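Our working data are protein records whose layout never changes between entries. An example says more than a description, so a record of this kind follows.
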Amino acid sequence: MGGAGIGVAGDPPGGRRAVVVWCIGVSVYFVAVIFRTSLGVAGLDAADRFHVNASALATFSLLQLLVYAGMQIPVGLMVDRLGTKKVLTLGAVLFTAGQVGFALSPSYGMALAARALLGCGDAMTFISVLRLGTRWFPARRGPLMAQLAGLVGMAGNLVSTLVLAPVLHDLGWVPAFAGSAVAGLVVLVPLVLFLRDQPGHGAAHEPEPVARGGVGFVRTQIAESWREPGTRLGLWVHFTTQFPAMVFLLLWGMPFLVEAQGLSRSTAGGLLTLVVAANMAFGLVYGQIVGRRQSSRIPLALGTVGLTALLWGATLAYPADRAPMWLLVTLCVVLGTCGPASMIGFDFARPANPPARQGTASGITNMGGFLASMTTLLAVGVLLDATGDDYRIAFSTVFVLEALGIAQILRLRGRALRREREREVAPPVTPQALRKDGALRP
């Protein structure tokens, strides 16, 4: 468990073509994150445009994440069944339509529907990109490729902060959101023309459908994936690590910094940018550490959660009404570690499942952080309305969910690590050794 994983027979070779294909796939995810996080820099504008309070504003992101989280297992099943290209193409069409609809919506209800459509398309991107990584690169590169995908997603968040926010301020709502939707059309072209699900040419190399059993296939895929303790541990690692930064970037960071901390919008935008930049930097570090030393996964995850809780506690409990700038900067840097730490969840789910279940297992894992984010987004909005915008009380929700996640990680880690050691001494599982239901052949 101490060293990096070694290649096995049948591992994809990687190489230049793999990089090109992976870049096409990850560009779709990049655009999806721009659209997903666009509301984070437009929250106050959205409240004015649709004449809504904090709870109703939170419903935008809540519904988007509800759809996203609810789609994770269905998308995982779709990826296992249909392959990456078809799922990514559908996702790009849906999230582009959602962004256009949000730009043109004349009412709060129609805007909600547009964000739900966007969340549905967005849900189809990340799991597909993870599958591309496992299909085109050796297994030992898995942690690094997952972190790089997360880093590209953060770059999309950076575009929202640095590009969309000024355009929104200078040109207005419709030009900013409708104009950004063009990016969805741009990434569709290379996706349709050049992306391939896995190395090779021709029908013989297309992803083999893992089942034709309808409901039986769905039940088997979910049950077998959930039975693995590594999948459940991955979910709880993702649950516990991702949501503090997600909630901050997706909606409540800008209002907290402007209304509770008295910062200007430009200064608050700079701090949001710092979170994204720190995320990108730490993503490379975490990927290298986990790739070289698998035993670092739990300490990194728990250390990130502990440090995040410490900085949030110090910021909210600061004696003065407003925390000093150095503390806010430190908080934003630490929040930048949350995204890379959440990728560790996939490093538990990936080795716990054979290739035929990778999409389903990744979908289960990916639900974790978004369920936590959804819960926190709603709780913060409700508590702000109930307490007269007391951010100290509202953000206390963070500590409750972190405590729940830590308890589950500690409960599952021993079981998951023992199962991994058992797999290490067993013969490697190949697609040919699997029945069509994803289980091992007798």
Summary: The chain has one domain: 16-195+218-424. Residues 1-9, 201-212, 428-442 have pLDDT under 50 and may be disordered. The CA atoms of residues 307 and 408 lie 18 Å apart. The two ends are 28 Å apart (CA to CA).
